[in-house]
Amino acid sequence: MSTRALRRLRGKQRGQEALDLGDLGESTEEQAEAETEEEPQDSANVSTSSNVNNNSRKAKKNKVQKNTSNIFELICDADEVEKIPPDDEAEKPGRTEKSDKAKSDNKEIERLAQNQEGVSAKSGDRKKKKKKKKTKVTSEDGQRVEPDNIDLLLENLQQSNGLSLQSDESGGCNKKSVILVEHRNLNPETELKRYFGARAVLGDQRPRQRNRHFHRSTWMTSPKDSWPRFSRPGVSMTLLESKNGNQCFTFEHSRDYQQVQFKFLDAVESMDPNNIVALLQLNPYHIDSLLQLSDVCRIQEDQEMARDLIERALYSFECAFHPLFSLTSGTSRLDYLRPENRAFYLALYKHMMFLEKRGCPRTALEYCKLILSLDPDSDPLCMLLLVDFLMLRSREYTPLLQLYQDWEEHRNLSQLPNFAFSCALCRFHLSQQEDLDPEEAENQKKQADQMLQIALIMFPGVLMPLLDLCTVQADVAVTSHCFFGPMSQIGQPPALAELTALYVGRTYALWKEAAVMLWLEESVKEVLRRVDVKDSFVEECENKRKQRYQSAPRNIHRHVLLSEIKEATSTLPLEVTTQPVMGFDPLPPLDSVISYTRPERQHVGASNESTLSLFFRSLLPNFNLQGGLRQEDEMEVARAGQELNQEVNRLMVAMRDMLANIRFQEPPREDDPYRDDEEWD
């Protein structure tokens, strides 16, 4: 490759190369050495040719001065230039010999050459120091940080800016160990490469150079060429406020996007997925349509299409991020009370569940921490009921115990069944590691035994459902005991029954190991012994269960609905199961912050319409037999609706009477002597 092409690749133009001070210094150094070598060594010869030497000395002097007249070499600090001693500058009055003059001239030339060497050497040293400063950065603690370690540089930057990850409720405890997210862990290929290797994951795939679509680089999803061409759908993000080191953001919808949202609500009310598909053909990156259609595809067991729609929704969100919004800082907040922000929570949650089913628990854990970091105080999707399971799946034992210690004081994690049992199981797995010392392993085992016994005493209703799902037959002494028997499940408060069923239905597979079952059996026997001797701790836990867990908050009900665990959904209260649940916004908060409202739909007149047309219009809101929209009086509409209800009630009563009067003839018995053999032929 030519030098001109290399110069273009480096971004340099001709004649703009930086001057190298070291090269100037080397040139003056060589010239000074050449001049000193040409000096006569015999003083007698110098005395005989004084005139010639004087002329040559003047020429050499001018030559040296010409070399030192470079402005880049003269720009230096005062302490860098070596001062000439005063003894050498002062001329002695007794010297009249020409040889002494020649020697003094030679010394002066040597001094100038040494000055040139010092200037060039020190300029080179200063250049090296600047290069060293570029290669290494020192942190506040005085430790040197390599520039490749981006995470450590960001950590030092956050500490210098005074950004704290502590909330008012935390009481000074650090949440950073939980909500800190790493960009590289958001990519599932990173985890798959760790399991199977890069060649097995990527294969021989090579990007096609022709007809290649250039997409914006994102962290959460990788855009695919099969997706429709991206155009901003009308979703943007704004910064609301900054307080206590946190930045509060919100998504906003444009006027055009609001109109598309109204059409989407009409399509949902029509109960026809084809209407949503038609809407997506016109608006391929409408968020709620992508979420709703993903649920439809998942129900139809089209998992690949359902996951692709969720990834498209996440890509649309990430393209709308504010420049200050960060996924990894842990200080960016999104309020779940705003409907525009809920779709982002739900897209992250559904993407996380797809990753967990795909076999990427570490990547799913990273998304779980991301959701938790968006609103750690309210936790609208109740991710604390899931984070322990993902940490156990990804074998993050130490972070799980650290989370339990940091959040126990202000969140009372020990009162949740999932943390009570998961932390005990985490201690047991740590005690089984081979690289531990025998004393440390024994200490971990004792702590695991103690934590499991406390969990069984506090939540006795977990044991029998857990053994049933693990297909393990319990001992008669356990099933017949009043503490672990059927009464332990019947007498549970409703909220505790919901939490227990959720934990058992989600994590029973982690308890199927033979070593874990033996350890559980030992702890159950010890608990029964403590119950029989009437330990005071058993009575204390019973009183806590009676006083607490009377009603679960709304975010726990929302989490149970999203989990779709049948053991947990069967325990939901009636006020949740009787109301309609939309997949794009399950159980919205009662105190939602509404930024724009849907316009009221025009009522269709019913005075001249038949009952059949009213029935069809109740099923299909857009149905109109007359072909046009008319404004009628409210009294007429109410009367028509009342007549329709009466007709439907009469129809239901008639159908009920008809079903009640149906009698099926029983087949004849074999021992009936009056049986007719030809009757059933």
From TrEMBL:
It holds the Pfam family Tcf25. Residues 1-149 are annotated as: Disordered. Residues 26-41 have a biased composition (Acidic residues). Residues 81-111, 137-147 have a biased composition (Basic and acidic residues). One of its GO terms (cellular component) is RQC complex. Residues 1-13, 125-136 have a biased composition (Basic residues). It comes from the Eukaryota. InterPro entries: TCF25/Rqc1 (IPR006994), TPR-like_helical_dom_sf (IPR011990). Residues 43-56 have a biased composition (Low complexity). PANTHER family: NULP1-RELATED, RIBOSOME QUALITY CONTROL COMPLEX SUBUNIT TCF25. This is Transcription factor 25 (Basic helix-loop-helix). It comes from Iconisemion striatum.
